[in-house]
Structures are given as C-alpha cells and as structure tokens.
Amino acid sequence: MDSSVIRVKDLYKIYTIGTNKVRALNGVDFSIRKGEFCCIVGTSGSGKSTLLNMLAGLEKPTKGEIVIAGEHIEKKNESQLVQFRQEHVGFIFQSYNLMPNMDAIENVAMPLIFQGVGKKERKERAAEMLKLVGLSKFMDHRPGQMSGGQQQRVGIARALVVNPEIVFADEPTGNLDSRTTMEVLELIQKISHEKNQTMVMVTHDNHLASFGDRIIRISDGKIIKITDNTLRKKEGGTTVKKAVPAKKTEKPKKDKEQKKTIWDEVESAGQDNTESKES
To answer: Staple 47 to which of 63, 143, 221, 226, CB 3.0 to 4.6 Å?
Structure first.
C-alpha cells in the first residue's frame, strides 16, 4: 500500500523571457511519506522555491502531476486551491508574518476563522498548540513583546492549529541566530516524529537539511540526489539526533524564478474574512 502523502511526477515549470525559455523545474519526480520530515535543499536559483510554490498550489506547472492527500492539485482552479490550502496545509514563514496588534492566542487562532470555527473552540485549540511549542506563559504577548525564536514558535503553532495533512516551511530559521535556529529545528523535528506530522522544509543550508528524514537535493531545476536519512537510534519512540549549532551563514538571495510568496497568497485569501467571522 502506498503511504505517500505527496507524489510528484514529471514536473516542469518553464518561463518564457523574451526569446529564451528558462526551465525552473526540469522533470522532477519524488514522493514523501506520511509523517516524514523532508528537507528540500539547494542554492539560490536552484528551483527549490519554485518547487515549494508548486506543492502549495501557488503556481501552475507547465507539465506534470502533483498529488497531495490523494488530490491532483494541478487540476484545481484558484478557488479550489484556496479551499484545499485552508483544509489540508499549514505554513511556517521565514519572517514569521504575525499580526502585530494580535496576541499569541489570536495569531494562532486566525486560520481557524477561515474555517468557520467558533471563537471558544478557536481559543481552546490555539492554547493547546501554544502549550505544545512551549509558550504557555506567553499566550497574551504580542509579537513585539517576544524574541525571534518565540515568534517563530507562534508561527509553528499557527501552522499546526488546523490539523494539516502537510506543513510547508520556507527557510523557517533564516532570521534566527545559530542557537535559536537549532532550538526551532529540534522542535520541528520533534513534532514531526511525535505527532506523525508531515513536514516539508526548504533550506539552502546542508547542515539544517541533515535533520530531515528525507533529503531532496535540487540544482538547476533537477533533483540530483534523494537521501533516506531515517536510520537513527531512537529512545522511547523519539528520534535523538542532537542539533549542533552551525556557523552563521550569509543569507542567500531569493530564487530569481519565484513570482509570489506563500504569505502573499494566504494573506490575500483571508484578508476579507478576518473581521467578518467572529462568533
């Protein structure tokens, strides 16, 4: 029985620039199993951000198939994709993207507004997720009252509150120092394994990618290597790979082929609904 929650087959994304054709993705095939922590790693311009956008349904492929949770997302129209993301997908962003005038509870609960969840249940579920990420004492704090690491934990809680099939993380530690990076990475890894939560993280950093169960290396729009990294010692069912702080690396520029960000899409999809669904 196929346990894959994501299947990608013969995926292409070709942009036309003047008389030239740029192959941002050039025949990509892979699968990700339920509960895996998968890392897609590559340098700036490798195609990793375009691939993430394809998986999230933010860009249409030129050719190929993307099957997520049993559904062909390349065949969906825009309104169907918005609904699919709200029901099946969580997002973790590099720059946190928290609402500055909302406290932690309100930020985490916000995706539930788009699902029509009542206020009492929203608050209960948000509190549960904040406890999961170790922020039970910071529920009434606004982003400006929290450190970068704490803000990213709020972002992780927000991604998980909808009980998603998959969580996509776009360079989630890019704005953090090396020590906080390791703390956040260990938390993502722990949640993936303990909750059987599928996580897909995009990174330029080979060291960070090494904590994934599966590592997909991409270059010039092609997958050059897939590594199964699941042979680890376990104690009590929890993976015990200890994070070692890496040296701070220079932040890469965004992939040239990226046309719009996940947050742009999520924010615009829910902008008109934020104030109208209180109960």
So the answer is: 221
> What radius of gyration, in Å, describes the C-alpha atoms of the chain?
18
CB 239 within 8 A of CB 211: no
Q: What is the C-alpha separation between 156 and 164, in angstroms, rounded?
A: 12
Nearest Cα residue to 239 out of 168, 170, 186, 175: 186
Structure tokens at 78: 């825009």
pLDDT digits 0-9 by tens, 247-261: 444 444 444 444 445
The predicted model scores a pTM of 0.81
- 136 vs 39, 109, 145, 169, CA distance in Å? 29, 14, 15, 23
Q: pLDDT tens-digit profile of 62-73?
A: 999 999 989 999
d(CA 174, CA 93): 9
Neighbours of 141 (CB within 10 A): 16
